[in-house]
Amino acid sequence: MPDLIRFQNLSKVYGSGNTEVKALWQVSMAIAPGEYCSIMGPSGSGKSTAMNMIGCLDRPSSGEYFFDGQDVGQLGEADLALIRNRKIGFVFQQFHLLPQLTALDNVSLPMVYAGISSAVRNERAAEALTQVGLGQRLHNRPNQLSGGQQQRVAIARAIVNQPLLILADEPTGALDTQTTKDVMAIFEQLNAEGITVVMVTHEPEVAQLTHRVIWFRDGQVLNDHMSPEDMRQTAFFT
């Protein structure tokens, strides 16, 4: 089966001369459909830049990025926007819910941009919220929900267009320990249903709940097949 995500000698360089920063440098890595991966590394390691590349939010300075068989570097902005809307579901640390909208309306937003009718939007948004355990909270606004519930709304919004990939950036960073476990259980279930999940995190205990860890340092991949057991047995990630 072809890779869903493939970097081929990919670099991202900011500035030039004395101010040049190699955020990513000649990175090659691949993630297959259906994988559940985490990306880790210290501050400045390149993990956030890698996330932006994976999410089609930025373009490489050199090298190639293939997503679902397409060379992303050759696509225009309209095509990139379509990929982000229809093939990638984003989950962020701070939820990014619109405070004036209900949970149902927040989850419906990606379908508005996809041109889906109102009736279908409401049905699919309700199904997505039920899937993450919020079937009784459809009409609550964010300020009527706990942090964990708001993140569940954000996950429902990410899956409502039935994406190939969920890309999560520090999704448990604002949550307590028990809520983190609850949210991670949702990601595990979504992956079991066939969705590829890639999570950027600085928390080893969160990364150990994924199936594979990709470790960045100084803009390069030091280890792209670290298992949770490897992390428990080594000081590599400290």
From TrEMBL:
Family matches, as Pfam families: ABC_tran
UniProt GO MF annotations: ATP binding; ATP hydrolysis activity; transmembrane transporter activity
ABC transporter domain location: 5-238
PROSITE patterns (alphabetical): ABC_TRANSPORTER_1, ABC_TRANSPORTER_2
Claim: Ribonucleoprotein is one of the keywords in the record: no
InterPro entries xref list: AAA+_ATPase, ABC_transporter-like_ATP-bd, ABC_transporter-like_CS, ABC_transpr_LolD-like, MacB-like_ATP-bd, P-loop_NTPase
A single GO cellular-component term on record: membrane protein complex
Keyword Cell membrane assigned: no
Keywords attached to this entry: ATP-binding, Nucleotide-binding, Transport
PANTHER family found in the cross-reference section: ABC TRANSPORTER ABCH.1 (PTHR24220:SF86), IMPORT ATP-BINDING PROTEIN (PTHR24220)
Name of the protein described by the UniProt record: ABC transporter ATP-binding protein
Organism: Vasconcelosia minhoensis LEGE 07310
